[in-house]
Write a structure and sequence with these properties.
The complex is a heterodimer of chains A (378) and B (226). In chain A, 56% of the residues lie in helices and 18% in strands. Chain A is built from 13 helices and twelve strands. Classes of the chains: A alpha+beta (378), B alpha/beta (226).
């Protein structure tokens, strides 16, 4: 065992000093390799963490949202729908929600306005998300002016700025009283944007949805699982875009790595011949080449993953922010909770380290099986 | 003792450009003696040397190392025999570029799994013995001809082989360095090593340390010597 360990150590020692001999070539390879791992790992970490965060946020969301449809479009729901749904067996709670979007020409941003179910601000007051506070330079006590549905100006006072802990969902959010909401959008009393409901037995959600649809054929029940699935699809789609953009970089790297790894130079071939001539076996040469590939790819992999971790969880994905964080101009500047799945790291490892190491060994195999006397004959 | 029985080596056998480098050589080489294979270029000296040193297999014939027949050994065992029994000094020394003289000397022992510190100690002792310890950390390409030659000799000796094989060792050396090399060969002989040299340099085959000169021509032995 000691012998085996020393053999590995001696060969690794020689491999490392061999790598240092071609500093320029290996450093440039290391940099390109690290950059590639960094980009891929950033996309993977970010989309995964975001999806995880979204699913955590949605955990507290109602099991079902019911929207009323008219000509395939989302329509306001009258209060009688609430009564009808509360009569369905299995439904434990029903609540009408009032929310909408407001385009602020001043910041060219869309805000989400919501009348909260409880602890709503008093009439004339609003609570705003930190994205809005940043873009409007607003603090508690400041006034923000809106333009109501009939063109009349409407001034509301900021009561509080929502905590940045919930920024993923609250960056562009304004909490408003029911009265102000109806005044701003011209909504009649007794009308809601949609209805949320809780179901006593979570296994019966689909059955309840069927009953809602049967009772109120012009509605569309949306289950929480469907929302989660939509989030997943959106993030997959977005990360897909990045991966497609990166694919040309990946391809360029593959060509670069293949050329570096497979194209043994005449000097490297001669060196292998010398090693064989002085008593190295084919397996010793391959072991050296394995450590050569492993040293480059493992270093790049670890550096790339580490940099991606810092990029995603400490700098809030500076580089991909516009593509990955949605369409709003109010990008939430939240810090994601570090969450890395071992499965993802393993996938990245098998996609980067393994092919490169194999690409290093295979061509060396041919060079390593030459007769040792080739050195004497050359 | 090394015994060659009717050795034949053909390169590219069965092809139109087949070449018979060694043709029916039978020879017995004594241990602890200095033997020179002499002859013009293309006479088969280097090929015979590589066959003796287990670097290649003969197309026909048998080679015995002591009582052991080595021609039929599988690749792995042959490599093991090669690295434990033979030390090689090549025509152009063939030091690995970019690494130090010390590392070059240690190279043949790396796969044997010797403790790194003790290996380093032995390699430094060898460099010291040949007077080039002050140059231990110099890269091989920075060494002078004489220093490179002595580094190559140290490398050949690192696994303490019984037999030293040298192929045209003085081809790139001036007269002074060639004489120095033969002095080293004399030293190896007193240390009971067997030395086999392929050379057509009169300074080598005419040296007083040489016990036997075997003359070759066209792959055959012309004069077997004493």
């Amino acid at each position: 065992m000691g012998n085996w360990f020393e053999r590995q150590r001696n060969i690794i020692d020689f491999t490392l000093s061999s790598l240092l001999r071609r500093k320029g070539k290996n450093l440039s390879l290391l940099l390109v390799y690290t950059l590639l791992v960094f980009l891929l790992a950033s996309v993977m970490f970010f989309t995964h963490a975001l999806r995880k965060e979204a699913s955590l946020v949605l955990q507290g969301a109602p099991e079902m949202v019911v929207q009323r449809m008219a000509a395939g479009r989302h329509e306001l729901v009258p209060a009688r729908y609430l009564n009808a749904i509360s009569g369905i067996r299995g439904v434990s709670a029903v609540r009408g929600r009032r929310w909408g979007y407001y385009f602020d020409a001043f910041t060219s941003a869309n805000y989400t306005l919501l009348v909260p179910g409880r602890d709503a601000p008093a009439t004339g007051y609003i609570s705003i998300g930190s994205g809005i506070a940043r873009s409007r330079l607003a603090a508690p006590g400041d006034l923000i002016s809106f333009r109501s549905y009939d063109g009349e100006p409407m001034v509301l006072m900021v009561q509080e700025v929502l905590s940045s802990g919930s920024e993923l969902v609250s960056s562009d959010l304004i909490l408003i009283s029911e009265q102000d909401f109806r005044k701003l959008f011209g909504m009649a009393s007794g009308m809601f944007t949609d209805i949320v409901l809780s179901v006593r037995n979570s296994k019966e959600v689909a059955t309840v949805a069927g009953k809602v649809l049967k009772l109120l054929p012009d509605t569309r029940p949306i289950m929480k699982s469907e929302i989660l699935r939509t989030y997943d699809t959106i993030f997959d789609w977005r990360s897909g875009i990045i991966v497609v953009i990166l694919s040309s970089a990946v391809l360029a790297f593959i060509i670069f790595a293949w050329d570096k790894a497979s194209g043994l130079s005449a000097e490297e071939r001669k060196e292998i011949g010398i090693l064989k001539a002085i008593g190295w076996e084919t397996s010793d040469v391959l072991l050296m080449k394995f450590w050569d590939g492993a040293a480059v790819s493992l270093t790049s992999f670890l550096a790339g993953v580490l940099l991606a971790y810092v990029h995603v969880f400490f700098t809030s994905v500076m580089l991909f922010e516009p593509v990955l964080k949605g369409w709003s101009t109010l990008y939430p500047s939240f810090k994601l909770v570090p969450f890395v799945s071992p499965y993802q790291v393993a996938t990245l490892f098998f996609l980067t380290v393994v092919p490169y190491t194999v690409a290093t060994i295979v061509p060396s195999w041919r060079a390593a099986t030459i007769d040792p006397d080739s050195v004497m004959r050359s | 003792m090394i015994e060659l029985r009717d050795i034949r080596k053909v390169f590219n056998e069965g092809k139109p450009h087949a070449l018979t480098a060694v043709d029916g050589v039978s020879l017995v080489l004594d241990s602890r003696a200095v033997t020179v294979l002499q002859g013009p270029s293309g006479s088969g000296k280097t090929t015979l040397l590589s066959l003796i040193g287990c670097m290649a297999r003969p197309t026909e014939g048998r080679i015995l190392l002591g009582d052991r027949e080595i021609t039929s050994l599988p690749e792995r065992f042959l490599t093991d025999v090669r690295r434990r029994t033979f030390g090689f000094i090549f025509q152009q020394f063939n030091l690995v570029k970019g690494i130090s003289a010390l590392e070059n000397v240690m190279l043949p022992a790396y796969p044997l799994g010797e403790h790194h510190a003790s290996l380093k100690k032995r390699a430094r002792a060898l460099l010291d013995l040949f007077g080039i310890l002050p140059r231990e950390s110099a890269r091989s390409e920075w060494l002078s001809g004489g220093e490179a030659q002595r580094t190559a000799i140290c490398r050949a000796l690192i696994n303490d082989p019984q037999i030293i094989i040298a192929d045209e060792p003085t081809a790139h050396l001036d007269t002074k360095l060639s004489r120095e090399f033969m002095d080293i060969v004399g030293r190896l002989k007193t240390e009971q090593k067997t030395v086999i040299i392929a050379s057509h340099d009169p300074l080598v085959y005419g040296s007083s340390v040489v016990d036997r000169v075997v003359t070759m021509r066209d792959g055959r032995i012309e004069v077997a010597g004493q």
